Amino acid sequence: MTKFCFLFILTLFLSSCKQDIHYEYTDAVYKCGDDLSWREKNYDTNGWEKERNPSTTVFWSRVIVLIRDRNPKDSIPVGLGIHSFGSFDVYWDGIFV
């Protein structure tokens, strides 16, 4: 019984150690065409469209993601998930990923 109680308490303790990542993101904006200057971190996207033209095959999409309240010493990795159909390149802060 003591062993069971120890395992139960240990499980409760470890389950409370989850590190949450708090983030905010903007709606995606789109621009038809292809220009590598659009990859720059602080590129001004004013004038970009809020919806993509479906007849355009080459376009860029930008989303601003802000990670909040994250201690750099945390061991939890931060990743990027992309759900897309087709070929694409990804830049994070202007760097090709």
Name the assembly state.
single chain
The average pLDDT score comes to 81
User: Count of DSSP E strands?
Assistant: 6
Give the uncertain stretches in residue-range form. none
Describe the structure.
The chain has about 100 residues and is an alpha+beta fold. Helices cover about 15% and strands about 20% of the residues. It has a two-stranded antiparallel ribbon with strand order 1-4. Strands 2-3 form a two-stranded antiparallel ribbon. Strands 5-6 form a two-stranded antiparallel ribbon. The longest helix is centred in the N-terminal third of the chain and has 14 residues, at about 1-15. It is elongated and about 65 Å long. The N and C termini lie far apart (about 50 Å).
Tags for this entry?
two-stranded antiparallel ribbon; 97 residues; single chain; 6 strands; alpha+beta
Please describe the topology of this protein:
Layout lengths: L1 H14 L6 E4 L3 E4 L26 E4 L2 E4 L22 E2 L2 E2 L1
Antiparallel strand pairs: 1-4, 2-3, 5-6
Q: How would you summarize this macromolecular structure in one to three sentences?
A:
This protein is of the alpha+beta class. The protein has one helix at 2-15, and strands spanning 22-25, 29-32, 59-62, 65-68, 91-92, 95-96. The chain is elongated.
